[in-house]
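Async update (no meeting this week)

Hi team, since we skipped the sync, here's where things stand on the single-chain job. The sequence we agreed to prioritize is pasted below, unchanged from the tracker. I ran it this morning and attached the output directly underneath so nobody has to dig for it. Comments welcome in thread, and please keep replies under the output.
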Amino acid sequence: MRKTPILTVLGALFFVSVPATSSASTNQYTLTQSSLMGEQPGMAALTQMDEQNLTSQAQVLEVVNTLKKSSTYKRMLSKLSKGETDEAAAVLLALANGESLESSIPVLAQNTTYTSSALVRAAMLLFPLDRYELYRDLQQADVFDQTKLRKWASSTGVLTSALYPTSMTEQDVFIQPLLESASITVQHQPKDARIVASYKAAGSDDEWQQARELVFEPVTGVHTGPMVYLDAGTRYDVKIEVTTKQGDVANLTQQFTTRADKPPIDPDKVYHLADFYKGGTLDLEALKIEGTADGWAKIVGDKDTVIEATEGNRHAIRIGNNSYVYFENITVRGGRTHSIYADQAHHIWINQCDIAEWGREPNIIKKGVAYEKEGAEPINYDSAIYLRQTGVVTVENCHVHDPVPFSNDWRYGHPKGPNAFFAHANHPDPQYKGQVVIRNNRFVGKPGHRFNDVIEGRKNSEPLGGFVRDAAIYNNTFAYGNDDAIEVDGGQYNVMVYNNDMSHTYTGVSVIPTRIGPSFVFNNYIHDLGDETGKQWAGIKMGGLLAGAYGKSYLFHNLIEVNRNGFTASRFQEDSSLLTHAQNNIVITFKDNKTVGYNLFDQEGFAGSTFVNNYLINMKRAAPKIMGSITVPYTFPELVNTQKAQELVDSGEQVTLPIDGQYRIPNFSHVTADGKNFIYGIVK
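Output:
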């Protein structure tokens, strides 16, 4: 694996970008050679040019072509066509001569030797961590046709479509409530502003509770973060204090109401399955069953009525694009590919359902991989619940189990097979993107008949992939998958994973790549990992920063007890650089080998990452096993011993350790009743 030096500019990633989706005008940085971030292909080229005193177009062109073939950068530069290398060399020469990206590109575009599209694309591919800032600068300069500029930027992976509706982006403060949480977005503030929010129930005499300080999110150019552990159906007052670097203070206020524990039901649209279901696919579009925002349609089951797909039916329940539908107490069996399927719907609620026996028959097994028939693709992505491009979803109190197909394990390559929930929340209408709540469920396979990922992400390498934005996955049990317990990969804008029990999977939580962020993984109990053969990789895996991810993952108060590795860098598109802040976690590893037993396995050491006050120990070594840099060691080193660690392991899903108050995380840290100990793992 590639070993690169630690960056010297701490926190530089926070000054990356503001795209078209933000109306903020907060750029205070010029993209010159001295301000661009290291580790990028363009910086490697500039370093070589400096060291070898390369000043001609031909010499720099050779550097670009060499980088395109290098094992380190060839994947990052794969989109740079042969016809764009001259423009890449011209951009590098301009930077070497002291010019900035945002000023040199319009000037070079006036030279008929170069094409505007190639100049923009070359700059963004050479400097992927600075491309959002460049994109915004070029938009504000208004030197190129905006439609064309958007197309050029998008072709390099820049998010140019809306994450939120215009009604949100026009507000200074926008709050997106869910059931027991809400995310705050503050716009039009300088990147280096300090923004702190406090909240309390509206009209109450309660004390104000402080939320965690908002963070600058470089893709959308806003400050954002969640408030957690709220009450459903409750009105809250919020006050927000903004302090600029110059000391100016502004105060903003807002109100919001969390969503109710149950949606409003239209009494004229309550459908009892026993009264009308006759077998086969329950097709809501054909039956014209849907509700409105003020009155949802409700479908109620009973113990004697089972929705069961007949042979050849692709789905047991087909929602289509019907919206405002609430399912309660439904038993679902079958579906050739998926049990419950929707396509560009929104406001779907699935409660107290039992789902099993979906997916294609594994009639042919080749090298451990299942096929339905000869000549077909391997069985993959068959889902108990697949709500395609569907947002504003709640799945709660459900038991998902026993698919028909099974996943291969890692002996036969990357696992392929069924999943319990397929996250694909990129609804075409921005107001309905994301907003997925998955709570209080049991998604559990069996030791010899496993899921691929228990929760899998669709298009999870894209900014609008997976859960996309504003989602909460909590109080669940996920077990028996040959890959991840949950893939959060994709956009991850205020996506939260907390209070879950995860076991018997190859990896616990995957946040690779975090295309937007911030995402939050906290108070989870990750233990007894292992695929069908016992092979495992990571408690939490991260990576792919330089390959186009920009968001940061935040890891708090997790209890991780694994044989192999805890916080773990993994390769995405040939890059394993990660960006995270991990604080107040317990990571106990048991085995010790070449790439086994690391509490922190971060071979790239990207300087924007911080690891603060984490209890880390490898039981074989009786000491932490670290590859990377620990920012702040654990406060109580005398407790880092095998006897104490074994006590923690034996205690199960929730443990406690002494508090050091300076590391208490507002709104996230839970303490014991006597106020002396932090709680790690699942909060009961």
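Quick observations from my side:
The chain has eleven helices and 47 strands.
The first helix runs from residue 41 to 52.
Reply here if anything looks off.
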